[in-house]
Specification:
This protein has 271 residues and is α/β, with parallel strands linked by helices. 30% of the residues lie in helices and 16% in strands. It has helices at residues 56-63, 69-77, 95-100, 163-178, 196-205, 221-240, 248-259, and strands at 8-12, 15-19, 25-30, 122-127, 140-146, 152-157, 184-187, 208-211. The strands form two sheets. Strands 6-5-4-7-8 form a five-stranded mixed β-sheet, with helices on both faces. A three-stranded antiparallel β-sheet has the order 1-2-3, with no helix packed on it.
Length: 271
């Protein structure tokens, strides 16, 4: 700021000087032991700054917990409370109300885009950790769903970092089986889906990545809802026959097998 105002700031042999544009000396400070140039000064003429007056509408708007101005005006006109003066509707907007009362626009019930060929769009998500783990130590459930046919692939993993290798394995098998190339993979921004190695594989194989916004699972609702259905069916089958949770792996794979061959509203005239 001093330089912008054309002041000359100069340091020489442990002394800092500041001169105005006419060359008059304004400040002269010696360097202290901790290598700082400390300037201590007091204002010549202390000034008292008065706080600006606030209108009754804004004052009572704040006093009553930022109640909307229409409510304040009606309360004042109808004399519903004692001690409230006449309140005129303020035309300005309260920034605190805008920040505290804002709402997210509801997500559409149905996606605007739907894939027309297999593997054109695949939804992926990693669910877990599931407790208790399987006897083999698997705690995570990787779910991949084809947007066109809603066919589902399920893989149980020990750790999150196994997800990338499982997707590469799925891609090779699915492309060979259906004769189509994987075009788009939609997942959240979890570290298992955003590693540099996995990104490199997607670039080399021509797979586009669609990443949902943080804390917005609704953007990948196809697989998020299927996760709930899949694990719910697995738990129900275990509890119905009083089977220990150690067999959750078999129950999840069985539920995926059943769901792939069951009725779904997402596709018409076929499972």
């Amino acid at each position: 700021q001093l330089d912008e105002s054309w002041y000359d700031v100069h340091i020489r042999r442990g002394v800092l000087t500041i001169r105005d544009d006419r060359g008059q000396l304004l400040v002269k400070v010696s360097r202290s032991t901790n290598r700082l140039y400390k300037l201590v000064f007091t204002p010549v003429h202390p000034v008292c700054l008065a706080v600006g007056a606030v209108s009754y509408a804004w004052r009572w708007h704040a006093r009553l917990g930022h109640l909307h101005f229409d409510g304040l005006e009606k309360t004042s006109k109808k004399e519903l409370v004692r001690g409230l003066p006449h309140i005129a509707h303020a035309e300005e907007l309260c920034e605190a109300c805008l920040a505290g009362k804002q709402r997210r626009i509801p997500f559409p019930q149905k996606a605007k885009y739907r894939a027309t060929t297999p593997l054109e769009l695949v939804h992926g998500d990693l669910c877990g950790p599931v407790s208790p783990p399987t006897p083999g130590g698997r705690r995570y459930v990787l779910v991949l769903i084809d947007d066109r046919s809603r066919f589902m692939w399920v893989e149980l993993l020990k750790t999150k970092d196994e997800a990338a290798r499982a997707i590469v394995k799925f891609q090779a098998a699915a492309e060979l089986e259906c004769g189509h190339k994987l075009r788009v993979l939609r997942t959240d921004r979890g570290g298992e889906f955003t590693s540099a190695t996995f990104y490199k594989h997607c670039e080399e194989s021509g797979v586009q990545r669609h990443l949902t916004a943080p804390y917005t699972p609704q953007q990948n609702g196809v697989v998020e809802r299927r996760n709930q259905t899949l694990l719910g069916m697995a738990r129900i089958m275990l509890k119905a026959k009083q089977v220990p949770n150690l067999f959750l792996r078999e129950a999840v794979l069985t539920a995926a097998f059943i769901l792939n061959r069951s009725f779904t509203r997402s596709v018409d005239g076929m499972t």
